[in-house]
């Protein structure tokens, strides 16, 4: 009788506050700079994945929200090969375990956020897949070790192996063994931190990140300055701001890094534009809000698309979400709290 083995796990979405943009090795997905992200609340945004394997399955197969995909892309194949080779090691060490490493895998994934929301789902997807297969294969589940496999699936996915505040250390070894995610602080460390996503557009990105970042690496002069001078300093400063729960510094670095990332995109040849006019209006609004508050109480950041993620502290929610609801309520979105727009506080003299 051929049995079916299965295990289930989840993977959260992470949003970088210090952006990964550029690969020094595109096969191993080794980055040109270290990066930092915040993992968003799983109750609202996560991929739920069940991995199963059986000798009676015909081939490796993936389902995402009910649609079937073959698991034959180079990156997926690499991730599964790594997981299978770890399982073989486990089987060799423990002869009583069933020999399942070579069985075809069926991976069934479901996102609890609308796929059309334009959110980066590949990080959550790879993280969930790797956690589920690691559980199925009874692999040692050190998150940093698994992050090295996730990294090969999609760079930013390595950070989704942890909750809270996460750093992806770029490493310097050619084989990538030291290019892994580590936790800077867990979610409980800074419970006041909140995030809101404004869905400016749910269209597919203009230029996919993988090809966009390679264009930047090869054509932008500004890029060398970013990876050599700007990011290494910011990486240290941002980790310190997180550990000290220093919101103004964290927020300023986050906004500056989003600006720097979009500048090297514009400096690529031909240029890459991810922000649109609505994104620029959101940037302006957050700057005006901070100016009128007399201190930085909100930060914007944009990935490879026009959608905004706004970080703020809960104590300032009535101002930050109040203003966003006032001016951008026509946009879809997601908030890590249940804010009632009736509680909005808009300064009378607000300059818009
Ligand atoms: C702008 O991780 O999607 O979101 O490694 O080629 O799969 P690949 O790229 P990906 O790039 C993410 C880029 C970013 C910044 C970030 O998340 O750090």
UniProtKB/TrEMBL annotation:
Recorded GO CC terms: cytosol
Family per similarity comment: Belongs to the diphosphomevalonate decarboxylase family.
Pfam name, any one: MDD_C
Protein name, per record: Diphosphomevalonate decarboxylase
Keywords: ATP-binding, Lipid biosynthesis, Lipid metabolism, Lyase, Nucleotide-binding, Steroid biosynthesis, Steroid metabolism, Sterol biosynthesis, Sterol metabolism
EC number of this enzyme: 4.1.1.33
A molecular function GO annotation: diphosphomevalonate decarboxylase activity
Entry keyword Transmembrane: no
Entry-linked InterPro entries: GHMP_kinase_C_sf, Mev_decarb, Mev_diP_decarb, MVD-like_N, Mvd1_C, Ribosomal_Su5_D2-typ_SF, Ribsml_uS5_D2-typ_fold_subgr
Entry superkingdom: Eukaryota
PANTHER family registered for this protein in UniProt: DIPHOSPHOMEVALONATE DECARBOXYLASE
Pathways involved: Isoprenoid biosynthesis; isopentenyl diphosphate biosynthesis via mevalonate pathway; isopentenyl diphosphate from (R)-mevalonate: step 3/3
Reaction catalyzed: (R)-5-diphosphomevalonate + ATP = isopentenyl diphosphate + ADP + phosphate + CO2
GO biological process: one example: ergosterol biosynthetic process
Domain Mvd1 C-terminal: 196-352
Source organism of the structure: Pichia membranifaciens NRRL Y-2026
Coiled-coil region: none
Domain Diphosphomevalonate decarboxylase-like N-terminal stretches: 12-181
């Amino acid at each position: 009788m051929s049995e079916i083995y299965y295990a289930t796990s989840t993977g959260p979405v992470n949003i970088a506050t210090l952006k990964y943009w550029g690969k020094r090795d595109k096969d191993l997905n080794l980055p040109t700079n270290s990066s930092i992200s915040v993992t968003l609340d799983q109750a609202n945004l996560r991929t739920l994945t069940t991995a199963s394997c059986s000798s009676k399955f015909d081939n490796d197969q993936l389902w995402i929200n009910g649609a079937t995909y073959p698991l034959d892309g180079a990156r997926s194949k690499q991730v599964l090969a790594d997981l299978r080779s770890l399982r073989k090691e486990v089987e060799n060490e423990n002869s009583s375990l069933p020999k399942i490493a070579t069985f075809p895998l069926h991976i069934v994934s479901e996102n609890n956020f609308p796929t059309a929301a334009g959110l980066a789902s590949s990080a959550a997807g790879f993280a969930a897949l790797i956690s589920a297969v690691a559980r199925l294969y009874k692999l040692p589940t050190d998150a940093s070790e698994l992050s090295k496999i996730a990294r090969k699936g999609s760079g930013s996915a390595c950070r989704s192996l942890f909750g809270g505040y996460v750093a992806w250390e770029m490493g310097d070894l050619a084989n990538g063994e030291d290019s892994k995610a580590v936790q800077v602080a867990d979610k409980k460390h800074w419970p006041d931190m909140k995030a809101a996503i404004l869905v400016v557009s749910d269209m597919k990105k203009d230029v996919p990140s993988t090809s966009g970042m390679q264009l930047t690496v090869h054509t932008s002069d500004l890029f060398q300055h970013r990876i050599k001078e700007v990011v290494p300093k910011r990486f240290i400063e941002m980790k310190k701001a997180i550990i000290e729960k220093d919101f103004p510094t964290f927020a300023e670095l986050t906004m500056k890094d989003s600006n720097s990332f979009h500048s090297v995109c514009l400096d690529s040849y031909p240029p890459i534009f991810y922000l649109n006019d609505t994104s620029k209006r959101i940037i302006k609004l957050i700057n005006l809000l901070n100016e009128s508050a007399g201190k930085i109480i909100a930060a914007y950041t944009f990935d490879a698309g026009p959608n905004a993620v706004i970080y703020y502290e809960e104590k300032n929610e009535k101002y930050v979400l109040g203003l966003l609801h006032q001016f951008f309520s026509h946009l879809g979105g997601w908030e890590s709290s249940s804010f009632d727009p009736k509680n909005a506080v808009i300064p009378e003299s607000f300059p818009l």
